[in-house]
Target: Transglycosylase domain-containing protein
Amino acid sequence: MPKKRSGGGLSPAQQAAKFLGVSVLAGAVLAGIALPAFGALGLAAKGSVESFDELPANLKTPPLSQRTTILDADGGQIATVYSRDRTVVSLKDMSPYVQKAIVAIEDSRFYQHGAVDMKGVLRALNKNVQSSGVAQGASTLTQQYVKNVFVEEAGDDPTKVAQATQQTLGRKIKELKFAIQVEEELGKKKILENYLNITFFGEQAYGVEAAAQRYFSKHAKDLNLQESALLAGIVQSPSRYDPVNDEEEATKRRNTVLARMAEVGDVSRAEADKAMKAPLGLKPSRPKNGCITAVKGAGFFCDYVRQVFLSDPVFGETSEARAKVWNQGGLTIRTTMDPQAQESAQDSIKSHVYKSDDVATAATIVQPGTGKVLAMGQSRPYGIDTKDHQTTINLSVNQSMGGGAGYQPGSTFKPIVAAAALEGGTPATQSYSSPYEMDYPSPVSVCNGKTWRNDPNNPAKLTNEDESEHGPYSMKEATAKSVNTYYVQMISDIGICPVVELAKKMGVSRADGNKIVQAPSIALGTQEMSPLTMANAYATFASRGMYCTPVAIESITQTVGSQKKSLQVPKSTCTRAMSPTTADTVSTLLKGVVEDGTGQQAGLGSRPSAGKTGTTDNRYAAWFVGYTPNMAGAVWVGDPTHKRRMIGINIGGIGYEKVYGGEVPGPIWRDMMNGALQGKPAPDFNLVNIPDGDKNKGRGNDDGNNGDPGRGGDNGSLFGGLLNGGTDGGGNNNGGNNGGSFPSPTFSLPEGLFQGNGNGNGNGHGGRGRG
Model:
């Protein structure tokens, strides 16, 4: 007697023999199902056998794509993302009712036949001949499973999906051969389990577990009879039988399934009748997919995690390989996000800047010494509904990571100049003449042994806050008051290259990916940066000179089927950017900014803090970047499109004649950091003693009018080297003289207005680099 497997159905030998014995008939049947005309039967049968023999022997089953869960540092859920909302479960975690219901309605002879149900094929052929069309199909559950594998393998590619589902003889033959292989290798129970995990149930739910959650907010193992019948009925046409959108049609289909279950003896007629009278009992849950569902306003942090995954080679050598892993899903990603810091950042943002304001704000917090990104938020919500002021542009990060082109940081760049000078041997007591107004000093050395020169015929000038502000100033006082002429004299004295090289060691780069233009005006913050870049740079000061690359992912666990494995994740690389003494000196200088200078509104009370304000002259951007020994944060406020100047403007319901870094970003930073640091230690800095110095020994050229006529870059910007000019270039952008009770800002032209491609070092100079 032929030997049978425990799962039911014929043995592999029987199955193969049966298929070969009826190959011509099967070909004819397939043609009959797919093609109403009988004339093609002979040719189709011949073609079916040849095609069958040429097919590969094994079905390559891709891992089922599942949802990915993104967690914060404490293990709380931030968001779920997926290309397929699916949670794979074993057969024991599926209600027996749903197992019986799907078999009854889709393939009631599942346990009696093999991969191909010849009785079903002949029945379908007879029906289709009578109707002169395709009135009935004959696919077994095994064949349907194989087709779903093809669809899963096609992913989101519409062309591949169409090929996987097209009603052609070739596809049916391929499906048949692989169905035989699957029956041989898996057995009935495993096929049923796989089918219930892979099939689509509508409403973005793939697999019975996701469907149970979507329609009834329960696990698949807890489904009752009528609920199971409803889900089983949906499979044939998820859109037509969608109970959320058409309850009447779904009820009819459910009752059809119940009647079939009674007919095949899975339930009694009384049980079926009772279930038919029950309401659908829907308790639907909304699909929750993507960073738009993130909690605590962490949509942009969530998106940053996605960008890290898709761009870091640790997750795959090519972008295609990384995207495949991401879309496959099944990942549990534990991130560095501190829920307390994130909530505090978003609360502070909301209380100071409305999402409907003409300008926006973005804020980022990092942990010194580790590079961990603790919080990331902005005033305009994550999403695509522009009417609700939503955006998917992450204003906190560089353009390559989903951000914009960046924003001029103004005077928040000055501490980097100070650190470069200190590293080069300039004493912390250094004084410069620091006049109210002066020409940019010239010549100034840049990298590669070249020089930048001002144009003696039309020299570029800069000014301080007002005419009453003039030196000589020491480094401490010049930093507290954010004196422009002091810092331009300093960078002219030490050269531009040390500043550029130190900036690189601190991870400071332009947000648009271009190189920093080597001109004295970089001391006043004319190069566009992102908040994450500036926060992490200041974290270098907080960690006493150690720069750590930013990281957002702590660990990743990947689930493939029932197997789990840990994936390698990017690690922060920490290197010494400057000596501890230099970092401590800068911290001492910036502590004075918060206590007695332009950043007093950002002070944290008794908790030691340090920071720097920054504002651009046209009021397109205002900043506060600061830190404590255990957290560093940056806050930017401005118009992302660089069109709205912050003059005569309402922000967060408060009117401002002019916006300054200490006035709007400062309080945002203060409230954000107070909440983020609540309950955490309050260590002090390693301060150094900085004497006031001899102001009468200030160095520097008051006007800087020496130097040869320069030229713009070879491919310079408009007005040849006005902003991004060339080697030895010296354009001109005279600063204005607007004074006021707050420090004046850096630059008098809109960000990115003139961005050329010169190869040299023209001067992007301007008005004032005050906070």
